[in-house]
TrEMBL record:
Organism: Paenibacillus xylanivorans
Protein name per the record: DUF1129 domain-containing protein
Record flagged with keyword Transmembrane: yes
Record bears the keyword rRNA-binding: no
Transmembrane segments: 76-97, 109-129, 156-174, 194-214
Listed NCBIfam families: perm_prefix_1
Domain of life: Bacteria
Signal peptide (residue range): none
Record's keyword terms, sorted: Membrane, Transmembrane, Transmembrane helix
Lineage: Bacteria, Bacillati, Bacillota, Bacilli, Bacillales
């Protein structure tokens, strides 16, 4: 039996009790290609075919090991909920920035958020209309890799926190740098200047809607989960 045939037989055995769905077929192809690539790497390191094959299959010894990091979710309801959350967050950001329109910079941010809400709302409506006939299809699923999703969610929060520190530091340096350097007291002359400063420091916080949307997408996986990929 050829090496390719042995790989195929081994992968087919792993999926003996799996449902014959598009997601499982795609996952089977991915495992097959990864297994073949691993065997090739081992052979390049000096192993013979049999040793390379036996070493490689140890990394995919069973379905629990393969599938534990994957979740199947209903595609249309899941992405509809994600777009709905994005629309809600963008609308909230737009509403709370309406008072900022008293300032030119605030008006610009508010207009951008309104445009964002219109775009996200349009995408939401378009997606619902496009998939209205497939929303109830139990075979229409998306496979989510939970560890990868969680890792990028955490990274995004750290990146956002770093961005806030940089932007706030830049604002503080531009507005109060000379006062701090020459040890002069920082003075805010009246409510107008206070409002200008407050808006300048509040605007970067609006970027929180991006990690919030990603966090929401991660949290609602369980709501539309149809079970492990097995």
């Amino acid at each position: 039996m050829t090496l390719e045939a042995r790989i195929t037989r081994h992968v087919n055995r792993l999926f003996d009790h799996a449902q014959d769905t598009l997601a499982n077929r795609e996952l089977k192809e991915e495992i097959h290609s990864n297994l073949a690539a691993r065997i090739e790497d081992y052979m390049e390191q000096g192993m013979d075919k049999e040793q390379a094959f036996q070493t490689a299959i140890q990394h995919v010894a069973g379905m629990d090991h393969i599938m534990s990091d994957h979740r199947r979710v209903q595609r249309v309801p899941y992405w509809t909920a994600v777009l709905q959350s994005a629309l809600i967050y963008s609308l909230i950001a737009w509403i709370i920035t309406i008072p900022m329109r008293v300032m030119v910079q605030g008006a610009t941010i508010n207009n951008l958020l309104m445009l964002m809400s219109v775009i996200v709302g349009g995408a939401y409506v378009f997606y619902m209309l496009k998939n209205k006939n497939t929303s109830a299809d139990p075979e229409d699923i998306t496979v989510i890799r939970i560890p990868v999703f969680l890792q990028w969610t955490r990274r995004l929060w750290w990146l956002w926190a770093g961005l806030i520190v940089v932007l706030w530091g830049t604002q503080a340096a531009l507005r109060f740098g000379s006062n701090i350097w020459y040890s002069r007291p920082i003075q805010v002359e009246g409510p107008y200047q206070f409002t200008v400063i407050a808006i300048a420091f509040a605007i970067p916080l609006l970027s929180i809607i991006i990690p919030l949307i990603v966090q929401r997408a991660y949290r609602i996986v369980g709501k539309y989960d149809v079970g492990d990929v097995i």
